[in-house]
Amino acid sequence: MPLIQFSIKPRLCVLNAGEEVCRDELEVKWLAAQARSLCLYQTDKPEPLRCWENAIQGEYQFELTASVSTDFQLRELDSDTSLSDQRFQVVYNEKKYRKARRNPWSFF
Fold first, then answer.
1. Which helix (DSSP H) or strand (DSSP E) does residue 69 occupy?
2. pLDDT at 78
3. 3-class SS of residue 17
């Protein structure tokens, strides 16, 4: 079975303190050596986001709102077999407060 190049950009969203969800414009691209009929799926959704028939490449842009990491899969249109997957990762940026090493009035 020929390889399929599959990518999503961006692949990471960092939430700062007080933020609960990522809203990001995702760009999905795939490229195959021969024409394929494929669909793009988001793990928690039963319906495909986009399908391509007899294509050697595909591109799709959409806005994603997520509070947890989400997986995306490219599947064969007729057999529903997963060929490749990518993860959009949501990371929480937790600042650790530390004590200053010197007094704020010190020049050294």
1. none
2. 83
3. coil
Asked if residues 8 and 28 have their Cβ atoms less than 8 Å apart, the reply is yes
Q: Is 30 exposed, middle or buried (0-12, 13-18, 19+ CB in 10 A)?
A: buried
Span 12-27, pLDDT tens digits: 999 888 888 999 999 9
- Characterise 20 by phi-psi region: left (phi > 0), alpha (psi -120 to 50), beta (else): alpha
pTM for the full predicted model: 0.80
Q: Are 38 and 60 in contact (CB under 8 A)?
A: no
Give the CA count within 13 Å in the CB-facing half-sphere of 85: 11
Looking at residue 42, its pLDDT comes to 93
Helix ranges (H only) for the chain are none
Q: Secondary structure of the chain: what % helix, strand, coil (to 5)?
A: 0, 60, 40
Q: Which amino acid is at 59?
A: E
CA distance 44 to 71: 8
Which residues make beta-bridge pairs with 7?
29
